[in-house]
Write a structure and sequence with these properties.
Length: 137
């Protein structure tokens, strides 16, 4: 099975938080920009829509290496999983960590060291993005 699930559980005007599963097993947590309002995308400041997409490893100019991208997302391009802590570290990508601290993720580099090897060999894996929003955090 090749399945990555991004299960969003928190959304505010500042960010969106999720739990990320690989083959049904929780591996890391995620942080994205806020959800789109009325399906209107704001470039670099909106989370991708829910749906079914694919994973693709591709070269990143920003990071200078192969990175895992989420592809085939309508109106979005270059969405990748990468390190960071706050919404300021993303322009639509999924920043990953090992745990949350309020509206941030922490231990992000450790999360990348854990998560990226799990995605090795998973080109064309399904990436399912869903929302199960429960407030407050």
């Amino acid at each position: 099975m090749k399945l990555i699930e991004i299960k969003r559980f928190y959304a505010s005007e500042n960010c969106t938080l999720s739990k990320i599963y690989v083959n049904k097993i929780l591996k890391v947590v995620g942080l994205e920009p806020p959800l789109m309002v009325n399906s209107l995308k704001v470039f670099g400041k909106s989370a991708m829509p829910t749906g079914s997409y694919k994973l693709k490893w591709s070269p990143s100019v920003k990071f200078g290496c192969l990175m895992p991208y989420i592809v085939n997302v309508p109106k979005f391009m270059a969405i990748m999983f990468h390190a960071g802590n706050t919404v300021k570290d993303t322009r639509g990508c999924v920043v990953i960590g090992l745990q949350y601290s309020g509206e941030t993720v922490v231990k992000s580099r450790a999360a990348c060291e854990l998560f990226f090897p799990l995605l090795d060999g998973m080109d064309d894996a399904d990436v399912i993005v869903s929302e199960h929003i429960v407030l407050p955090l």
